[in-house]
Amino acid sequence: MNYELITTRIEGDKVAVITLNRPKQLNALNDALMDELGDALKHFDANANIGCMVITGSEKAFAAGADIGAMANYSFVDVYKSDYISRNWETIRSVRKPVIAAVSGFALGGGCELAMMCDFIIAADNARFGQPEIKIGVIPGAGGTQRLPRAISKSKAMDMALTGRMMDAAEAERAGLVSRVVPLANLMEETLAAALMIASYSQLATMAAKESVNRAFESSLSDGVMFERRLFHALFATTDQKEGMDAFVNKRPARFSNL
Ligand code: CAA
What is the rounded distance in angstroms from the CA atom of residue 142 to the CA atom of residue 117? Predict the structure, then answer.
């Protein structure tokens, strides 16, 4: 795959790493980059060998937001007609395999929103998160006002969206925005270990787990629990359930076939 604004690589046969690659612009997210990211995500999601994806940036910036220079002269007609943001940023929501954000440096505006669209965030200790759109006369436009309160409470989300301040990695972990904080030097090693572990399991089970956790944000508790229960029941129809449980009972490693 030939991309200009991202790079991709495969780790351990089963993990795809996508690196945002506009370092001089702190990985500001323009339309072309989001097209490439969406294309790569769809490609890896369709690749039967890949069990988990990682999105990362540079040490200084995961992404400093949507590209302000590109947006500055957009009119309402431009953004409405082209379905700005919805057109290509939302691709990540249709990815069925797990996606981890490995965040170092700035994750601001659309960068924070992109990280939140991933299934979970592993942060380096130099990570800084924020929704500073208020400072440039707008509001978060890629889900920040919706995903932040679900992740970190209304009060903290309001604080972030209204003041535009940044939170450091320790605060982000306390608030529940990130699943873990690791030393910057270990970010990729720890993220790849998690991704390889996920990719070693049955893809049927990891996709079902992702689908079920995401349902929690779209349904009542009883509807969500019923959705989970039916997926749990359905997994008993898979070869991988038989293999996983037989391997446990017979004290041997499981060999999943994704069937
Ligand atoms: N868009 C376009 N270019 C950006 C950018 C962005 N979001 N963020 C940084 N850059 C560019 C800078 O313009 C600069 O380019 P030049 O070298 O050509 O001048 C380069 O990246 C380096 O940036 P700085 O010199 O500013 O670096 P710094 O270390 O002094 O500051 C920073 C870093 C605090 C992240 C600062 O760059 C900054 O505040 N960036 C903007 C953050 C922001 O407002 N993000 C929200 C964007 S709106 C949005 O995302 C909408 C949405 O919800 C979808």
Answer: 9
